[in-house]
Design goal:
mainly beta, 4-stranded antiparallel beta sheet, 1 helix, 2% helix, globular
């Protein structure tokens, strides 16, 4: 773990021309070709996958999603192993209507793909899990006492503050369909979670809002959930807030004894990870959490080494304090 802390703020597999946003880290049951025990999947055309034998030395393996197309934007893969399936490695991801500033943000639906091997190739299996929603991204699967849950990001537009927030639903054991109605978890409302103070989305239907005449809205964002349980047994969600191309950070939600979700990061200084330009850390966000076979937890996230640089992935240990809250031991 010391080697990872020494690499904090340093890309683990620097590729200046490849964006490595939304990284998802897994540990393979046995090494794959090349001797890789760990894999990271990122958001870019074909969902590039990177492999490592030790979490420090990383190599690009190739593209993991065979059916990905440049004709539509695909975001944020989540990969889980489902024992008993003929193709036991399952990837959930979102795909938009098309690409570009408009169609790349329209009609994102969470889809399913599967593979015989963790490095792929994954092939879309045809299931669409969120066909009843007009926007759904950033899936994460957590298995609780009542079965698996899918947590993801969706839009809140019935009233203000408008924006993207978090929701959840039960999901079948084979990750092919939702088994319960979608229910709200949390919505963005803090100042640091503002995505755009004047956002125009003429493709988006918001009750009472007409986009004619250049109308805009204040749009907040809470996305990229990573579901886990604290050592004290409390459900915890890490999330990303703000604008991934500007001020972006990783916040923490945790359930209180009554089951109510509480935002532990109402301000940037309360974030698990916030921008630290003096350390070369810009826009940290969209994380996944891996519980390793040794019992340690690892936080995999993306960041920029400069305000205009492509996103790169990093990994740091995740620890818990006496209040049962997570922290990153960078300065401890």
């Amino acid at each position: 773990m010391r080697a990872l802390l020494e690499r904090f703020g340093v890309p683990l597999c620097p590729e200046p021309d490849v964006d490595q946003g939304d990284p998802f880290l897994i540990e393979c049951p046995e090494p794959v070709d090349g001797g890789f025990r760990y894999l990271v999947y990122v958001t870019a055309a074909g969902f590039p996958v990177y492999g490592s034998p030790d979490l420090v030395r990383w190599t690009r393996v190739g593209e993991s999603l065979a059916s990905a197309s440049a004709e539509a934007w695909c975001w944020a893969p989540c990969v889980r192993r489902v024992p008993g399936l003929a193709r036991p490695w399952v990837m959930l991801y979102s795909r938009a209507r098309g690409a570009g500033d408009v169609d790349g943000h329209r009609d994102h639906l969470i889809r399913r793909a599967d593979s015989e091997r963790p490095e792929g190739p994954f092939v879309d299996s045809g299931e669409v899990l969120t066909a009843d929603l007009d926007f759904a991204i950033d899936p994460d699967v957590w298995v609780g006492p009542d079965g698996p849950l899918l947590t993801f990001a969706a839009d809140y537009v019935a009233d203000e503050p408008y924006g993207t927030g978090l929701v959840e639903a039960g999901i079948s054991a084979d990750l092919r369909r939702l088994t319960t109605p979608v229910r709200p978890v949390a919505r963005a409302r803090s100042d640091w979670q503002l995505y755009d103070p004047d956002r125009s989305m003429p493709w988006k239907r918001i009750p009472g809002v007409s986009w004619a005449g250049g109308r805009t809205v204040r749009w907040f964002t809470m996305e990229g959930p990573a579901a886990l349980v604290s050592p004290g047994g409390r459900r915890t969600l890490l999330y990303s807030g703000g604008n991934f191309a500007g001020f972006y950070g990783i916040g923490v939600l945790q359930q209180d004894p009554g089951g109510r979700w509480v935002d532990l990061s109402p301000a940037p200084e309360d974030c698990l990870l916030a921008p630290a330009p003096e350390r070369g850390l810009h826009g940290p966000g969209h994380c996944s959490v891996l519980a390793t076979g040794s019992g340690r937890q690892l936080l995999c996230f993306h960041f920029r080494t400069g305000p205009d640089r492509p996103r790169q992935f990093g990994i740091v240990p995740l620890e818990w304090d006496r209040s049962d809250h997570p922290y990153v031991p960078v300065d401890r």
